[in-house]
């Protein structure tokens, strides 16, 4: 809201996946050069780079070479804890301070010899009440209807790979619940919140499902669905943290291309689920690659659809998240702004 004018459309650099990056490489390299030049000409008091490390860090290196005394702050640490940990140490050469949005990241940077790093709180904790049910908004999960959320991702590649096994899993779970754990009928209400640009693709792929989901579009409908849900089947991503803060037990799934599968040996982390990493233990089941099948997903969902130790464990763990993620009395945006101002004052 402060009159930001973008040098170019963000779609130029919002590229996911190895093959897509290769196709767009000339554009990406040109935008990196142009951005660095614009900063050097502007000679700002402080440079804050935000996320997108493959782009922003290349810009920061160029700026550091030309303006060595400029303070550079990185808002959102690259996931050095997951892969390419050597990046932490390399960042010291061109980053003065990292503003981390995950509570375990300052320790990681200390351990790996990265730049000074402060946890500034995840932006989601400012919005946590939007995800939390009001009184009587979420019924008891033992009552009909049982509300299952299906979240197959926000990228075309995720939808393409996950809609089929998700459909099979949902069908198997609905049949099993209709027969009932205790012999009583259980009606399942299926809601699939879709991002607007993928809604048509999702509708096409869901048309073949034996059990039809209600497809809802837009942020308000998604938040309402979260507040009412009893269980979720979700693609890995920030959505797992949104669900956990909402108190919704979940099963997480993911599938990547054959080429990306070869890169899995580079992963240095015990889980790909953010919530598991914050809690420090793997309470959320994650079914990845060849485990991401209809039958395996259905089995994991069934373990959470009833009164089970697995369901209790997730609910108890999620109740600890506020304590683990809180930075009260500050807000994430307030703490981030304070550190940027202090860095400017110190540099001046």
> In sequence order, what are the helices and strands, one letter per element?
HHEHEHEHEHEHEHEHEHEHHEHHHH
Proportion of residues in β-strands: 5-15%
Quick one: how many beta strands?
Answer: 10
Helix fraction, binned, reads: 40-55%
What Rg is obtained from the alpha carbons, in whole angstroms?
A: 22 Å
Query: How far apart lie the N and C ends?
Result: 26 Å
The mean pLDDT is 89
What report would you give on this structure?
It is a single chain. Helix 2 (25-42) packs across helix 3 (53-66). The protein has helices at residues 18-23, 25-42, 53-66, 86-91, 105-112, 128-131, 156-179, 199-206, 219-228, 239-246, 258-261, 274-279, 294-304, 309-318, 321-325, 332-347; strands at residues 46-50, 71-75, 97-100, 117-119, 146-151, 188-194, 214-217, 231-235, 250-254, 286-288. The longest helix has 24 residues, at 156-179. It has 348 residues and is an alpha/beta fold.
